[in-house]
Design goal:
This protein has 18 helices and no strands. The C terminus is likely disordered. The protein is globular and about 65 Å long. It folds into three domains: 213 residues, no CATH class; 185 residues, no CATH class; 69 residues, no CATH class.
Length: 490
């Protein structure tokens, strides 16, 4: 298959992912403001703490399994053994999630005398969320591997919307008890499990195709990833635990809400890139080899930077207005972390693209070492900065740690595939962003945050696009050709 066809497939798949991804992001923007008005910062901070525990537990169950499904589905398809892959992965998922849940409940039983009552009830329910989310995620990742984007998008959208809505409804019934958010997650995921499995596998798997040796091969690939994912999770959530320990639940609540907004907006781009390109990159690597794969990865990096860099700068420009618009007053001060968290999200997308060389060559041991270094740096920086700077120090620590990880991954990945940094394109991108900032800074205040944000976004995007064309980073003929190719214009 030609490079042009591969690029067309990536763009086509990305376009298919966009509606559901935007719906999920938009739902998040609606839910977060509602939560900040329904729960005060201290109570919400306890919920964030419980969800951070859940995230940590998921690294022992779902994270490495998901990577394994994406990595081996193409091979299983070629060998006509997808049913064996499915049953083997389901067996491993059930065993690992139930075992981890029992360990958690035992730990809670031994330490409950030292845990706040509200937090205790939240933590008791966390294992149920772990089991349901792990089971439902397997068919969703299989749909991704099959490139059944429409079905994957439908289920993830339903999950994104139904979980918080049902949770808020239950919280309301329970007179504002935040425990309702977790109960809602369990109920919603439990219903989705049935329909997801019927859609993906046409039936509920019965494990009759399970092969012990096949599962052993999958685990031998996946287990080295698990420590890596543990250190990645430590990098991601250790600031929550340290911030809670030094500054308390209220600061954690303020930090978490603003972190979610700024991270979600930028990581949305990375999510689209990974969802659309990961299965295709693996398929090209297996069927066409190194050269074709390198071309896709380098084109992907340039495209990501063209979209990602102005998105970070634009978010920083509107950060204060956006936080004021979305959040209850006690949360607004946290907007100062937007530049650091948004930049961190951008670099995480870069490292995801860069690490393809390591993943495709099965050198997950390198990722383990790199994320270990990054997580330790993050913990030490948080301990050093949080006592004096609070959540602002945590945001700084996150950015520094992510940059360190991106640098190491980029260095080692180039030993397996050639990743060319598009320096000329980066220079043009920043030149276009500079003009965008100048124009944006001279837009008058219309006295309404919604109007201000909308006008700034539209004008900034137009100025940036025009500048890219003037600087010849985009060519009008290429834009027209692409639009015609995807039947957007005639």
């Amino acid at each position: 298959m030609s490079m042009g066809n591969h690029q067309k497939n990536i763009v086509s798949d990305t376009i298919k992912y966009i509606p559901a991804t935007l719906i999920r992001a938009f739902a998040g923007f609606l839910i977060v403001p509602l939560l900040t008005r329904f729960f005060d910062a201290e109570l919400y901070g306890k919920y964030v703490f419980a969800m951070s525990v859940l995230t940590f537990l998921q690294t022992f169950v779902g994270s490495w399994i998901n990577v394994t499904v994406i990595r081996f589905y193409a091979q299983a398809e070629i060998k006509q053994e997808t049913h064996v892959l499915t049953d083997s992965m389901l067996a491993v998922t059930l065993l690992s999630s139930i075992t981890m849940s029992l360990i958690v409940w035992l730990f809670i039983t031994l330490t409950k005398a030292y845990i706040d009552d509200t937090l205790l009830y939240l933590l008791i329910l966390v294992p149920f969320v772990l089991i349901t989310s792990s089971i439902v995620d397997l068919p969703l990742q299989t749909l991704r591997a099959q490139r059944k984007i429409g079905q994957y998008s439908v289920f993830t959208t339903i999950s994104t919307i139904s979980v918080p809505i049902i949770g808020i409804m239950i919280s309301y019934i329970l007179n504002g008890a935040i425990i309702g958010l977790i109960i809602g997650s369990i109920v919603a995921q439990g219903v989705i499990i049935f329909f997801a499995y019927k859609t993906c596998y046409r039936t509920i798997p019965r494990l009759n195709h399970f092969r012990r040796e096949y599962a052993r091969d999958l685990i031998s690939f996946g287990l080295p990833i698990m420590p890596t994912m543990i250190f990645y999770t430590i990098l991601d959530i250790s600031d929550r635990f340290i911030l809670n320990a030094f500054q308390g639940s209220k600061e954690l609540g303020i930090y978490a809400v603003n972190y979610t907004i700024s991270w979600t907006i930028i990581s949305l781009i990375g999510t689209l890139v990974s969802q659309s390109s990961a299965p295709l990159i693996v398929s090209v690597w297996e069927k066409e080899g190194k050269t074709s794969t390198e071309r896709i990865i380098n084109a992907l990096l340039r495209t990501y930077l063209i979209i990602g860099i102005p998105s970070v700068i634009g978010l920083v420009i509107i950060s204060s207005q956006l936080s004021t618009l979305l959040l209850a007053p006690e949360y607004v001060e946290g907007a100062i972390i937007y530049p650091f968290i948004a930049s961190s999200a951008l670099f995480m997308g870069i490292q995801w693209i860069a690490q393809r060389g390591i993943i495709l060559n099965n050198r997950t041991d390198l990722l383990l070492k790199i994320f270990f270094v990054g997580s330790i740096c993050n913990i030490l920086l948080n301990i050093a900065l949080i006592p004096s700077l609070g959540y602002f120090g945590s945001a700084i620590a996150t950015l520094i740690a992510v940059i360190i990880i991106t640098g190491f991954i980029s260095y080692y990945s180039t030993k397996y595939i050639t990743v060319s940094i598009p320096w000329i394109s980066i220079g043009r991108i920043f030149a276009a962003c500079s003009m965008m900032m100048i124009v944006s800074g001279n837009i008058p205040d219309f006295g309404n945050n919604i109007i201000n944000i909308t006008i700034q976004c539209v004008i900034s995007a137009a100025v940036y696009s025009i500048m890219l064309i003037i600087l010849k980073e985009w060519h009008i003929s290429d834009v027209v050709r692409s639009l015609r190719s995807y039947r957007i214009i005639k």
